[in-house]
Write a structure and sequence with these properties.
The strands form 3 sheets. The chain has a 4-stranded antiparallel β-sheet. It is of the alpha+beta class. The protein has 30 helices and 10 strands.
Length: 810
């Protein structure tokens, strides 16, 4: 062993020895530190908002936030009401429901349905903007008049009601800002906001009273949706179903909270059971579990202290850390009990155990942390945080393993195992396996070669995906509601196109609006196998309806002159300024075109968003800035960037780990050779994905990065014991037997713990988490098999001349 390794392991052993001599004091200091950090866990929050997957400073997020501040939230709650829409009873019930939503629901800005969809009625010199359904119709002629109005309204006919009038939509737009009230309106606040002094300067109102307000938070949206459920329970006759991104986020958040708690408990229970079966000592369960749980507590505390929240991938962090960090404790305790049961005192046995395992534990922790830390280059916030805090947790677990376990060994009661006349079944099995591998290593390696060759074409067939709806159980209400509304109505996803003319009143220009109208006609019939636009709404529709109302039925188009256009817009603005400013800004510089689409895989929309951007740039040229925004645009580009950054993280992880292996083994060639047994099982597992119908999504993309960082631990421990045997003067075959004897049992136990820890996720109702658990657990099983078959063969081949060298030296 090189001198730096010897010095480092000796210092760590003496550090543990110092703690063991004063175990009570050491434990008191540890508990005080834990209590100090643990206080922060009171402020832990779960965040399922998709927009927070993207950095607030990213350009696409800045554009999204600006559009949200200017025109309101892009994500809306959609209520599908089922029944005979054009009937007096249905419309009466619908009005009662909408009235309650408007008056009782907190944190909302707007509620729209066919009842209050703007309908324009004009004469020669006046324009009146009415609710599409004013008084509830009582007779058939009155119902027929409502039908006629629906057909004349683009918004009503294309978005708010389906073709056979069996389902109507209520769109609830959550408030952008928290106005400091738990109700949807605050009369006193509105009186102040629109007083004569304030109204004289609209921009001052916005700057002083709105822009400095906090955004509505996820807990507030949860409160709003909970209240909405209570209201809907009082209106069963409407058969209401709920969809939209806010509702999807809340459903996902509930699933996350439930599963995180369940997985932590199940992981702890299964790992404890595995440790009892292996060590048959209660203290061998208590000591490592406490060390790992302390590392988990410190990691989660640091996550909260740094201002981060629990997001979708981060629900895996507790169970993930519990599974991958217990391995160090298994190796340490294996060596401790071997010496302790041979007659050594606790102090000497633990000193020797730390001295023997400190370096491989440190290096395996560094390789695991290095693999995880490669995720820090990801553009998606929760993936980046998962990599950073999982790496921190791994290193904390290593530190606490050589601190807490030695201390607890001195404090907890320990009994010596009875001396066995013959080796245990596991030890005997590992010894027999070492002989078998020595005799048939080349054949076993050939099997791996064939498996990898078969896997490569399957890996090439993998598809990328990002569909939060597929993460959740098929029988979940939000999933079923989304599919019904997508099928029956216009869809549950929205996308905005912001057209910035760059000049005041530029959005009033007739030539500009004609370009918008022509583009809108193309968008209304847009349909591909993966993306379909079912609804389009903009200022163009308002102007066309104004023109029809003022000029007659034959004029359902834009006015023929700029003067007439200005007059019609003036009349509409005087009658319905609130509705107008949802489509343009107050200076008429920016115009919003809203698209409604069915739910689909987010990655399908990346090319669609790019196509829209290209179309807009071609139509408007340099004179107008075209920005495609909304949650779809925000996530689509980010997920594509994630694919590229994850691919980069694969290379970074492999490179970092390879360098560490070279340093550990003091050989460039041997370091590269040692990577083969770790890459092979990952390649085979990824080759299983396509035949099993598993796609590469935000979680399953992590399999390779996670697995290679953990799987290499086996190689480190096995190779360390093999090199130790060579340093003792043994030949290759004997050194190989030393490696199986010294590390085999611990590697097998660690593999079982890791596999069980990740197979826990097979109980998940979230499909992506289920797939991650299956793939990672299987990868760890195959990694153990690889290190018990392929690694011995490669080491034997590499050190084929060692016997000759040994004889020469002798």
């Amino acid at each position: 062993m090189t001198s730096w390794k010897h010095r480092l392991e000796t210092r760590m052993a003496y550090f543990s020895l110092a703690l063991m001599k004063k175990p009570k004091l050491a434990m008191l200091v540890i508990v005080i530190i834990l209590l100090g950090f643990g206080q922060s866990l009171r402020y832990i929050e779960v965040d399922s908002e998709m927009e927070n997957f993207v950095d607030a400073s990213a350009e696409v997020r800045v554009i999204y936030s600006q559009a949200k501040e200017q025109f309101g939230r892009n994500d809306v709650v959609m209520l599908g009401l089922r029944g005979k829409v054009l009937s007096t009873q249905f419309l009466t019930d619908m009005k009662a429901l909408q009235d309650r939503i408007e008056t009782e629901l907190p944190y909302i800005d707007d509620v729209t349905s066919i009842l209050n969809t703007p309908f324009q009625k004009g004469s020669e010199d006046s324009l009146e903007v009415l609710d599409l359904v004013g008084e509830i119709p009582q007779t058939q002629p009155e119902l027929d008049q409502v039908e006629q109005r629906i057909q004349q309204s683009t918004l009503a006919s294309s978005i708010m009601v389906n073709a056979d009038r069996s389902m109507a939509l209520i769109m609830i737009e959550p408030a952008t800002y928290d106005y400091g009230s738990s109700s949807s309106t605050n009369d006193e606040g509105l009186d102040d906001l629109f007083s004569s002094e304030v109204f004289s300067d609209i921009n001052a109102v916005i700057d002083a009273s709105v822009s400095n307000l906090p955004f509505v938070t996820q807990p507030q949206l949860s409160e709003m949706l909970l209240q909405l459920d209570l209201i809907l329970a009082d209106h069963p006759d409407l058969n209401a179903i709920k969809a939209g991104m806010p509702a999807m986020n809340i459903a996902l958040q509930h699933t996350m909270k439930t599963e995180m708690s369940f997985f932590i408990q199940l992981t702890i229970g299964l790992i404890a059971l595995t440790l009892i079966l292996f060590f048959r000592q209660l203290n061998a369960v208590i000591a490592p579990m406490l060390a790992v749980l302390m590392a988990l507590l410190l990691t989660m505390s640091l996550l909260v202290i740094t201002g981060n929240k629990i997001q979708v991938p981060l629900i895996l962090l507790p169970s993930f850390l519990l599974a991958i960090t217990i391995g160090d404790a298994v190796h340490l305790l294996t060596h401790f009990y071997r010496s302790f049961n041979s007659g050594e005192s606790r102090l000497d046995a633990m000193f020797q155990a730390v001295q023997r395992t400190a370096i491989p534990m440190l290096l395996t922790s560094l390789t695991t942390a290095g693999g995880l830390l490669s995720l820090a280059i990801a553009d998606v916030v929760p993936i980046r945080n998962l990599g950073i805090f999982a790496a921190i947790g791994v290193m904390l677990a290593f530190i606490l393993t050589i601190v807490v376990i030695p201390v607890l060994v001195m404090l907890l009661p320990i009994r010596k195992a009875k001396t066995e006349q013959k080796p245990s079944l596991m030890k005997a099995g590992i010894n027999r396996w070492s002989i078998f591998v020595w005799q048939h290593g080349s054949k076993l390696s050939l099997v791996w070669l064939v498996a990898c060759l078969l896997a490569i074409p399957q890996v090439a067939k993998l598809n990328f995906s990002h569909d939060p709806m597929n993460w959740m159980p098929d029988n979940l209400e939000i999933v079923q509601s989304t599919r019904i509304i997508d099928q029956q109505l216009s869809g549950t996803m929205t996308l905005d196109i912001i057209l910035d003319t760059g000049t005041r009143n530029g959005a009033k220009n007739l030539a500009f609006l004609r370009k918008v109208a022509d583009w809108q006609e193309q968008l209304e019939v847009y349909k591909t196998p993966t993306v379909e636009i079912k609804g389009v709404n903009s200022l163009v529709d308002v102007i066309k309806e104004s023109n029809r109302a003022l000029q007659g039925e034959g004029h359902n188009s834009l006015p023929q002159s700029q003067q007439l256009l200005n007059e019609e817009l003036f009349l509409f603005e005087n009658s319905a300024a609130d509705q107008l400013y949802q489509l343009v800004d107050s200076d008429f510089q920016k115009l919003k075109v809203s698209l409604v689409l069915p739910w689909s895989d987010i990655l399908y929309y990346e090319a669609f968003v790019h196509e829209l951007q290209q179309q807009g740039d071609d139509i408007f040229g340099q004179e107008t800035l075209v920005q495609v925004t909304g949650l779809i645009a925000l996530l689509a580009g980010t997920m594509v960037a994630l694919v590229k950054s994850i691919a980069m993280s694969y290379m970074v992880a492999a490179g970092v780990i390879a360098i560490m292996m070279m340093l550990l083994l003091n050989s460039f060639r041997l370091g590269l050779l040692a990577m083969i047994p770790n890459i092979a099982p990952i390649l085979v597992v990824m080759g299983l994905m396509h035949p099993f119908g598993i796609e590469l999504d935000m979680l399953t993309m992590l399999v390779a990065t996670i697995a290679i960082g953990i799987a290499v631990d086996n190689t480190v421990h096995f190779t360390h014991h093999f090199r130790h045997g060579l340093e003792l003067g043994h030949d290759v075959e004997t050194a190989m037997a030393d490696a199986f004897s010294g590390a085999g049992q611990a590697l097998f136990t660690t593999c079982i713990v890791l596999t069980v820890g990740f197979y826990v996720f097979l109980f998940s109702e979230v499909h992506s988490i289920f797939n991650l658990g299956f793939l990672c657990g299987t990868a760890f099983l195959l990694a153990m098999i690889s290190n018990f078959t392929l690694t011995p063969f490669l080491l034997r081949w590499y050190f084929k001349n060692h016997q000759q060298t040994l004889q020469t030296n002798n």
